[in-house]
Amino acid sequence: MGDHIYLNFFDGMEKSTLREIQLRDNSFQKINDRALQIFRHLAHLDFSNNNIVLGRLDDLFLNEMKLTKIASFAFNNSNLKLLSLTKCNIKFTSDNFDYANLFRWSPNLQRLQLDSNNMYEMNASSLMSMLSPLKKLKDLNLESTKLKTLSAEIFKPLVSLRHLDLTLNSISGWPITLFSNVSKLSRLLMASNKIRVIKEGYLPSSLMEYLISLDLSENPFDCSCENLWFRKWMDNMILKKPDIFSNYPNHYRCATPSRLQGTLLMNYNPTDEDCRPWGHVLMDIIITSSAVCFIFACAAVVYIQRWNIRYLLHTIYMRRKKYTLLRDIDFQYDIYVAYSDKDASWVRNELWRELGQERGFKLYIRDKYEDPGVAKCDSIINNMYDSRKVLLVISSSFMSCPWCLYQLQVAQGRAVHTGPNWMIPVILGDLQIRHVTKSIRVLLTQENAITWSEEENGKRLFWSTILRSIETSVNLNDVIDDNSQIEI
Question: What is the DSSP string of 265-322?
């Protein structure tokens, strides 16, 4: 039969409806490129086990072949430099292709054109597995392949890649590290995808250093503050490389928001101030809130530590002034104490113990020095006039006690001649407003009433103020213990 299939090899079979031809196990070495055109119904052609060798094949174009399946070793040719499968309507699925071995035997492939095929069902790991053997690939065309996502490592094996075409896909974003391993890339086409926002890091400086052309045209850009970084980055890139963006500016337009739809991207120029109005408000709120919280915190601390603070101030004041008092030998008592029966226990346990026992003052307390056979009103007047000071323990029970109010009247009458400093009003407990008489109101208005506190430092302040009012005759250091400490 010979070793060639010439143009007239099948003469006389022009009208044949032959669907299958078996030419296996022959010695064919060459086939005329039009020898098989007459078989319009041919569905199966078998050239197995012939001597057809494509040892010097550099470029292989199989465009528009309507391929459904490609065998694992179909491209077993180490000399192959260019392979074009454009518009073959290939549906890349795991059932039809052995991804790991599809290009495994074409290690020197430099140009691969897979545009206008269907990779919709192809996952990222399968695409990476298919491309990983192509270490010398320089030009990869994946235009219109229905790609939606790209994995971070997909282009990492393609260390020689110079041109990458991802036009007309459904890509909206990608991992930050996607282009970090393709630093030799000079042309990147990503037009007509679904890119709304270009985030910082999407196009690293290592990529942009060598990139000559970048096509991002016909993408639905979002003209909002989300693209603030991208707009500023674009302007900076144009200053460095004026022609870097293909089809710019007419094919770069805003898609959202609706009020800016159709606006040229170059005319959308947000500023940092435009994009941080809420940031300023939030900052003002934070500062104001912090200031208010600080003021409240200070107020709370001052309130909680009020006795400590007042005690400290009084202690400093008294130590500076070093008050002394001349003890008048004409007075039988240092202090006349007026109190109600309900407050007697406080007078004995607190007042007497501190001023009488600890400080050595002589206090007139009716429970201790009652005058037998003397009328109560006379006893009050005699002993009060025989005392250098009068201390009034004012409480709710004091204000409701007739004898207590009588003692107050006597003391106020005496104060007309001695002056207001003769009386020392002490407030014990909370006062009920309805019991506050006019005379007591006048007393509390004119005199600095001293309030009893159960807090430790409050007590210290209380006694310090009492001593100041009494004006002890000894040096201040004898009245106030220099070793007393204030706990704050």
Answer: GGG----TTTT-HHHHHHHHHHHHHHHHHHHHHHHHHHHHTHHHHHHHHHHHHHHHH-
Going by pLDDT thresholds of 50, 70 and 90, the confidence category of residue 77 is confident
Beta bridge partners of 22: 46
CATH topology of domain 322-452: Rossmann fold (3.40.50)
Q: How far apart are CA 88 and CA 69, in angstroms?
A: 11
Residue 328, pLDDT score = 42
Q: Return the sign of the alpha-carbon dihedral for residues 107, 113, 115, 118.
A: negative
Quickly state the pLDDT bin for 481 (edges 50, 70, 90): very low
167-181 burial by CB neighbour count: b if 16+ within 10 A, else e? bbbebebbeeebbbb
- β-partners of residue 426 are 393, 450
Helix, strand, coil in percent for the chain, rounding step 5: 35, 15, 55
Sign of CA dihedral 467, 473, 476, 479: negative
Distance CA 394, CA 432 (A): 11
Q: What is the mean pLDDT of the chain?
A: 81
DSSP string, 213-249: EEE-TT--EE-SGGGHHHHHHHHHHHHH-TT-BTTTT
Is residue 47 within 8 A of residue 27, CB to CB? The reply is no
pLDDT at 343 > cutoff 70: yes
13 class by beta-carbon count within 10 Å (0-12 exposed, 13-18 middle, 19+ buried): exposed
How far is Cα 158 from Cα 164, in angstroms, rounded to an integer? 11
Domain spans of the chain, in order of start:
1-53, 322-452
What is the token pair recorded at 38? Answer: 């007459």
Q: In this structure, which amino acid lies at residue 235?
A: D
Higher pLDDT, 204 or 8: 204
Q: Return the pLDDT at 318.
A: 43
Task: List the one residue out of 63, 5, 46, 56 whose CA is nearest residue 29.
Answer: 5
Asked if pLDDT for residue 468 goes beyond 80, the answer is: yes
Q: Answer whether residue 82 shows pLDDT above 90.
A: yes
- Coil/strand/helix, residue 260: helix
**SS3 state at 140:** strand
30-58 per-position pLDDT tens digit = 666 566 666 666 666 666 655 555 556 78
Of 124, 167, 111, which Cα lies nearest the Cα of 143?
Answer: 167
Q: Distance between CA atoms of 359 and 352, rounded to whole angstroms?
A: 9
